[in-house]
Structure formats: structure tokens, C-alpha cells
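If your schedule permits, I should be very grateful for your opinion on a structural question. Kindly check, if you would, that the fold set down in the C-alpha cells agrees with what the sequence suggests. Thank you for your consideration; the sequence and its C-alpha cells are set out here:
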Amino acid sequence: MKKEWDSSLNNPGNVKELIPEFYMDNPAFLTNQLRLDLGLRANGKRVDDVKLPRWAHSPAEYLAKNREALESSYVSENLHLWIDLIFGANQCSIEAFNVFHPVTYQGRIDLEKLSDPVQRAALEVQITEFGQTPKQIFSSLHPRRYSKIPKPLQIQQEEDRKVADSS
């Protein structure tokens, strides 16, 4: 878990996101409850339970803190930006540093029209290994989520001045 976390923070090529189970109530997927032999890592250590961050004292606490973070004011204030990147107007934005290989965008490449079997096989492998970018469903920027969190006074004053100027 730590290795993947560090990679997602430091490697711009790592675009992984957490699956929904990381925000649910059942932590069973984080433990090897059946004591299955999952093999050895390259360093010789056995693959077993997921090693949690130091701040999580149990798998249940880990999931609870993930849910708490997901519902935080920071996420609420910035969720529209993520929606724009994944499903919206910034999905293919060079300015937003959100450009993936063309083969990942739905409808960009018609595999049926490729006559070269080697090229087709290569593209199929790339799609299988990397995945596919979700279908773009919004063409304009997504509105910011309404929040009951008070805005800093300076921002509120600027917004009030704009409203007064437009009247």
C-alpha cells in the first residue's frame, strides 16, 4: 500500500485511483482471512495482509478515515475539478495536464478498421493493460458543489462587489 501511495504521489505516469471498497464498511478485502498462499514478493517476503499506514490501527479504522477524508470540506470544495478532469470539459486538456494516450479515449481508434494485425494486437494489449478513459459526459465546466462552509471574508467581499456591480 505504501509503495503504491508513494508512486501515485511522485510518478506522473501512475494514474491509479482507489476502488470503492476503500470507502465501504467491510475491511475484509485488506486481510488474508483464509490464509491463502499468495506467494512471495521479489524481496522474498510473503504476500499476506495489506500493510496499513502507521496512522491506521486496524483495517476498520483505515476505511473509516478514508470515508471521513472523502466527505471532508476540501473534497467538497474541489470535487467539481475532479469531475471536469475525469468526465468533463478538461478530460483532454493539455492546460490541465490531463492528456492520455489517444487509444484510451472511447471512439478515438476503431480497431475493426485496422488492417495490420500486429498494430491491432499492440493496441488491444495497451487498452487491456492501461484501461480506457471514461466516456466524456459534460462539455462545460461542472459547477462547484454548494457548501455551508463559510468563505474567507476577502472572497465573500469580492463576490458581493461583483453582484453589486452587475445590478
